[in-house]
Amino acid sequence: MSVEKLEEYRDRIRTELDRVVDFWLKHSHDTQHGGFFTCIGREGKVYDELKYVWLQGRQVWMYCRLYRTMERFHRPEILQAAKAGGAFLRKFARVPSSDGGGGGSWKCAFCLTRDGKAVKVQRTIFSECFYILALDELSRVTGDTDMQAEAEQMMEQLVVWVRVDPSGLGRPPMPGDAPANGMAVPMMLLCLVQQLSEGRGQEAEQRYEELGAWCVRQILQHLQRGGTAVLESVSLDGAELPGCQGRLQNPGHALEAGWFLLQHAAARGDQQLQRTAVDKFMELPFQRGWDRQHGGLFYFLDVDGFCPTQLEWSMKLWWPHCEALVAFLMAYSRLKEPQLLDRFTQVYQYSFSHFSDAESGEWFGYLTQEGKVALDFKGGPFKGFFHVPRCLYMCERILDDLLEKKDR
Fold first, then answer.
1. Integer CA distances (angstroms), 247 to 219, 224, 302, 407, in order
2. Rounded CA gap, 231 and 238, in Å?
3. Which of 58, 131, 197, 322 could form a disulfide with 391 if both were Cys (CB 3.0 to 4.6 A apart)?
4. Does residue 383 sit within a domain?
5. Residue of 186, 197, 199 whose CA lies nearest to 129
6. What are the pLDDT digits (tens) for 46-69?
7. Please, are residues 310 and 319 in contact by the beta-carbon 8 Å criterion?
């Protein structure tokens, strides 16, 4: 592909990132109580004041990453917003655990009122994960070592819940509920391993090396049926589960796992894992998940071709396309195989022509199978300032690197 085409992609992505950041800077900040509004309508109007902890953490992380690594975002209002979001999280997010013991005496709420009162606690680890992500990144821009230590301590608690004693999550085992390995948990822990060890020196790398290797093994268990399918859930010993749960595929998750694995492999010079990441966790789910009639990636699929039971299975959501853009561009930057850039181009053309809102800024999140806007809000309980800006940020940096190498 020509340098001019790569520059065209880079310039469009850079402009889009600026527009997305401006949208959230303008519409999401709660200057009265701190933190961020995330339920935001098409044109920026707040339609619900509930604050979702995982989205608060994601926004703090995203602001800090932009501030720390991109010169044009090294702006005082971005740093101040990140600090205010971090202060809100540290003051209100942690709540007592339901069992008061077992795996620990606290959890993070899933949802808070505008002024910080807990509304709901989920029996999963994801609010805690994004709390850690936020605190670690915020500590890097503020130099707050206590904040870094808190993130590391919370990471230790997560590992206990996942690998030793899940009782602190408040989810009692049911006799008919077979334990399963869902791909989201090792994926998220691998993301945290990369976050907590990045640039922290050899000691931090060694501290998380075993956990990172465990996460990789857990993710690779999801490659099933002789290496021809990535399944969302498997048994604890890596076998296929019966029924709908066992047949479920989530192309976006597999693609995200693919670039997580690729980053891990590249840092260690693991050529075999790099090849597996690209061939099995990117190419397979893309081939299976791309809608050849209407374009875009399906949200869920059944590996045996049954209709998935998830009502939104055929919709086109923003975040799988974001993960696909990152995955294929990152893979191309590593392997320089032209078909990987072709994949990126295919997803790029669909995403910018369907999700991007040229009038009001930001991206729509939920499209019908045919590609029409189904829900026109820009933020909600699951969509915040994360997948779109992270994708644009990562793609811009990868393209910068590719163009710099071409110039040389």
1. 16, 10, 5, 47
2. 11
3. 322
4. no
5. 186
6. 999 999 999 999 999 999 999 999
7. no
